[in-house]
Amino acid sequence: MAHYGSKELAQSFRTVRTNTLEAARDIPQDKYGFRSTPDCRSVERLLAHIALSYRFQHRVHAVEKRSSMVGFDFPAMMSELGAKEAEPRTKSQVIAMLEDEGEIWATFLDGVSDEFLAETVSFPSEFSQPPKSRLEMILSVKEHEMHHRGQVMLVQRMLGIVPHLTREREARMAQTRETEAS
Predict the structure, then answer these.
(1) What is the pTM assigned to this prediction?
(2) What is the dihedral of CA 165, 9, 144, 90, to 10 degrees?
(3) Which residue from 115, 123, 163, 182 could staple onto 153, CB 3.0 to 4.6 Å apart?
């Protein structure tokens, strides 16, 4: 089995972010205020959430280099991220933020060691969970983004936009059919 380390982590995150950026670019500015339901985030806010949510893991692993989450002020962190996410932005500002914030995270990932990824982080007893490796925690950033990008793609469908990944797959399938027919 091939080794999966910092270079692969960074590359896979960049791929995920590139796909998120394509989805963000495909939605017109006048639809950035669209909400699928009144209690859901708008397109703008959902994309801002995607852009900023890595900051939790970045603070834990890059800034504070915590080995324990005991004493970490989760409510303050969530409040800080929520306030930043809620700042109004234009489509171009959201896209720039996705690009800039994504590169901060990818650059960090690109430079971590295997030993660092293998380190464990423990949690307060009230969390009732065993320690996790930094790798597992760091992978959650990509998983979280893919979850929310799925929401963005559903919103695209609601707006009559065929997501770019679907367009690309359909083009490949059409090319394959043409090749087989000739």
Answers:
(1) 0.92
(2) -70
(3) 163
